[in-house]
């Protein structure tokens, strides 16, 4: 019997209260964590897991949806603490996670730095330093679009680029649950595109929302916003309409 747990983690970042929602999938064999927060989040992850009577020691796999620092920040620390964990990511994201290629978010920040007002540059420098501090870690298994994996009664990888080129969402078929990561977020109880100003490819991001509509979704979980309360298909269609119809 498989199940999932929303690991809502509240914290303060840049003097603002924030919440992220990593997810744990679990059956009799595997405990799979999807995304792992900022650097130094291992204690917060342990506390969140314990609230669901899960220990990180029992974790067998960690799926990384993309290489933004709030999704991979504690990846290396977790691998050191629990070396048996298998790290899984899309084949396009692996070179960034492993440090073979410079972070696209860092390249983006560097390319806009000189256009910033002087008062914003210290924050930008701090942001870039944090990105540079993310430790690379080897990816044990790469995945591709529509790849079906047998864990937890079956999960499917959905390539949902736009936010990042190798961004993935995960469909948990046993409960018809879509773990969307940053393909969509929840803002004011509505679905939205995550940080449109920083989205690498907005057209691809909208196509990825359309791709989600191909699945029978009863629960939609966003990394920023948690569990969506509402009619999922209608909300996804409305989001597409907002961006494609003037």
UniProtKB/TrEMBL annotation:
Boundaries of every Metallo-beta-lactamase domain copy: 19-224
Catalysed reaction equations from the record: 3',5'-cyclic UMP + H2O = UMP + H(+); 3',5'-cyclic CMP + H2O = CMP + H(+)
Pfam family, one: Lactamase_B
Organism domain of life: Bacteria
Primary role: Counteracts the endogenous Pycsar antiviral defense system. Phosphodiesterase that enables metal-dependent hydrolysis of host cyclic nucleotide Pycsar defense signals such as cCMP and cUMP.
Protein name in the entry: Glyoxylase-like metal-dependent hydrolase (Beta-lactamase superfamily II)
């Amino acid at each position: 019997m498989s199940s999932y747990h929303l690991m809502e983690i509240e914290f303060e970042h840049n003097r603002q209260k924030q919440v992220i929602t990593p997810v744990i999938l679990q059956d009799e064999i595997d405990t799979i964590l999807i995304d792992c927060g900022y650097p130094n989040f291992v204690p917060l992850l342990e506390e969140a897991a314990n609230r669901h009577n899960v220990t990180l020691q029992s974790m067998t796999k960690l799926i990384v949806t993309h290489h933004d620092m709030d999704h991979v920040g504690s990846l290396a620390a977790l691998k050191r603490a629990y070396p048996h964990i298998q790290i899984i990511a899309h084949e396009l994201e692996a070179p960034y996670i492993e440090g073979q290629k410079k972070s696209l978010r860092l390249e983006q920040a560097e390319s806009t730095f000189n256009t910033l007002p002087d008062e914003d540059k210290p924050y930008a420098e701090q942001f870039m330093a944090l990105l540079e501090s993310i430790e690379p870690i080897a990816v044990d298994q790469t995945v591709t679009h529509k790849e079906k994996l047998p864990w937890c009664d079956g999960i499917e990888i959905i390539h949902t680029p736009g936010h990042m080129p190798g961004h993935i969402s995960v469909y948990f078929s046993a409960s018809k649950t879509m773990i969307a990561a940053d393909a969509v977020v929840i803002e004011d109880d509505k679905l939205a595109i995550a940080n449109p100003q920083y989205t690498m490819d907005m057209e691809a991001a909208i196509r990825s929302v359309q791709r989600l509509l191909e699945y029978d979704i009863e629960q939609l979980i966003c990394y920023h916003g948690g569990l969506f309360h509402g009619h999922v298909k209608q909300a996804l269609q409305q989001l597409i309409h907002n961006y494609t119809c003037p």
